Amino acid sequence: MSEASVERRLWSLFEPLHAVTYFAPEGGAAFEAAGLRGYWRRYFAGRAAPLGAIGSGPVIATFFGFAPGMVTRALPDVWTRITPQAALDARREGTRAALEPLLDGIPIDEVADLLEAAAHAVDLPGRPLGAANADLPWPTDALDRLWHAATILREHRGDGHVAALLTAGVDGCESLVLRCGRDAVREVMQPARGWTDDEWDAAAGRLRERGWLAADGSATILGEEASVEVEAVTDRLAGRPWRQLGAESTERCATLLEPIANRLLPLLPMHNPIPLRSQGQGAR
């Protein structure tokens, strides 16, 4: 595989900071202490909280890859169990409790400054999740700033990825089926995003009609080319923060993020919905 773009390289380094929220046990403990039980309730409440006490519609739109039925089971009911502000507090407390011991001994002040500068440079029009997180008050502590900046940047990139998929004429389920035709595992991805067998198989049929998926479920050359183009558009749409930061500061930011990412990546399960792996898990 060719060398990763600057945008994808930086994403691979700051994404683990945000992902701690979903995979570290401290995150779950913080939500349980706030009165919210259940992994998916925590996920939807914590990630949607910057948007306020919204219903399922905006989450179906912005989270994109999740089956509408899965979203409607969580929202708006979750707001009868926790307020958006309490969810924001819980995700911050849980993430901080997880990161403090994991990053012990790694200086973070400079990288927090650089990542914050990049996050302040994101373009917000058409980026609902990125903009909602960017609209939250900035914390003052370096560890909190580091996580908040990573979260803005990952949701900004994610908003752009949704735009790239829509431009390619790919819906939420199709995006997952195609990815499983390349490097992911259906047995993980399908239940993690709530699609039924009928919905999954119908999406696979649509991709086969386009010539993107072979009969055995693997991506064809056309499917591979389409996926590469979607990633290229995603990268282009994620480029502004790094252009604003400048090549030298961006490289410095990447260098400082590397030891942080190396400590956090092992937290991610071998097969997970985020296309990241530690080197020991066969990174791609």
Mean pLDDT: 94
Distance between the termini: 8 Å
The helix-and-strand class reads mainly alpha
Question: How many strands?
Answer: 0
DSSP helical segment count:
15
Our estimate of the beta-strand percent is: under 5%
How can the largest sheet be summarized? Answer: none
**3D shape:** globular
The value of Rg in angstroms is 18 Å
Name the quaternary structure. single chain
What are the low-pLDDT stretches, counting only 5+ consecutive residues below 50? 278-284
Question: Helix content range of the residues, please?
Answer: 55-70%
Helix-strand string: HHHHHHHHHHHHHHH
Describe this structure in words.
This protein is mostly helical and 284 residues long. The chain has 15 helices and no strands. The protein has helices at 6-23, 25-33, 39-48, 56-63, 68-74, 84-102, 109-120, 128-134, 142-167, 172-180, 186-193, 197-209, 221-237, 240-245, 247-264. The longest helix is centred in the middle third of the chain and has 26 residues, at 142-167. The protein is globular and about 50 Å long. 42% of the residues are buried. The model is unreliable at 278-284 (pLDDT under 50).
